[in-house]
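Annex B. Sample input.
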Amino acid sequence: MKCPFCQHEDTQVLDTRVSEEGDSIRRRRRCGKCDKRFTTYERIELVMPYVVKKNGSRTEYSSAKLRGSLELALRKRPVAAPAVDAAIATIEEKLLTSGQREVDTGYIGELVMQELKRLDNVAYIRFASVYKNFEDLAEFQNAIAEVGQERKAPRKS
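Annex B, continued. Sample output.
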């Protein structure tokens, strides 16, 4: 680690502490040349995969866009904000653990639908109608019937 004062490359670590959140490490250092002290922080840098759109263009992943889509589908629905945050965290974790450098919008859409189906059936139908581009009433009815059948099926514990 270079000294920020004299640019000397030999610095000594005097103290190391993990942050209260556990997501970073704070180190107190001393320069071997000018004897000045300074603090450094180490944090995990997570790189989200790029998103490949239907037209083939690539864009950076945007958590704000994901949140906007979920909030639009959940508008005026009785779903608490922490549940939305948890759904976003789940989706982002799946994107990170996929190990892919690029994912298409279809994959993200499927992850969103899984989370919406778990959170709220009406929001799921709203999102699915746009995502799957429903053309007529029959497609809505099929989606509603699918959700209804899953609710009636006994859940395995």
